[in-house]
Amino acid sequence: MSNREAKTYTEQTTWMLAVRDARDKTAFAALFDHYAPRIKGLLMRKGCGHGQADEIVQDVMLTIWRKAAMFDPERAQVSAWIYQIARNRHIDVIRKENRPIPEELGEAPDAEPDATQILGMEQESLHLREALSRLKPAQREMIEAAYLGEMSHRELSEKTGLPLGTIKSRIRLGLEKLRHELKGIRQE
Predict the structure, then answer these.
(1) What are the DSSP calls for 150-162, one per residue?
(2) CA–CA distance, 61 with 141 (Å, rounded to integer)
(3) Which site from 82, 87, 101, 172 is most exposed, i.e. has the minimal number of CB atoms within 10 Å?
(4) In angstroms, rounded to a whole number, what is the distance separating the alpha carbons of residues 67 and 39?
(5) Distance between CA 46 and CA 52 in Å, rounded?
(6) Annotated domain spans of the chain
(7) How confident is the model at residue 97 (pLDDT cuts 50, 70, 90)?
């Protein structure tokens, strides 16, 4: 990159690139000082309390540090990239709050599952592993990364270099096959 190109970046983008390329803590502190209050204000305007907004901001900034290598100034402005992370975290919090508590979690904390429950869970795990092993390797890898590795479809696309549509198709087709494979087990 020439010096002329570097001058076209905003100060925030320059900080983000320093974090991405050199794990520059001073640049990260500047990003934090710039974006943390803005993200918190946005979250509070969307109905978050101070404590919850602070937690989300901390999580967002930690994600920025951890996933800095994924930032590409040619694909998005640093502010858009950061606010998208914040938006996703906020949605995750809202979904988590609105989720009904499963009945199993409503039991007393000291209640232990009986032997039949343990055996049933072990059998289900075995059937799932067997069904996963029968998938095409490309589908299995995508499903395992997305659901066990908790990677988003976009992260998988960036990691593998495959188009986002290919990632989604492999996951969809793999899940359909898994549903078919496991359908007989549920009916037993």
Answers:
(1) ---HHHHHHHH--
(2) 29
(3) 101
(4) 18
(5) 12
(6) 3-98, 115-187
(7) confident
Joined tokens for residue 119:
């055996």
The phi-psi region of residue 161 (left if phi > 0; otherwise alpha if psi is between -120 and 50; otherwise beta) is left
CATH code linked to domain 3-98: 1.10.1740.10
Length of the chain (residues): 188
Per-residue pLDDT tens over the stretch 144-160:
777 766 778 888 888 88
Q: Looking at residues 39-60, what average pLDDT do you find?
A: 90
Beta carbons of 103 and 92 less than 8 angstroms apart:
no
Question: 62: closest CA among 97, 89, 42, 43?
Answer: 89
d(CA 55, CA 53): 5
Q: Where are the alpha helices (DSSP H) in 72-136?
A: 78-98, 115-133
- Reported as a pLDDT band with limits 50, 70 and 90, residue 103 is very low
DSSP 49: -
Query: What tokens were used for 1?
Result: 């990159």
Architecture of the domain whose range is 115-187: Orthogonal Bundle (1.10)
Decide: residue 157, CB within 10 A, 0-12 exposed, 13-18 middle, 19+ buried.
middle
Separation CA 140–CA 171 (nearest Å): 8
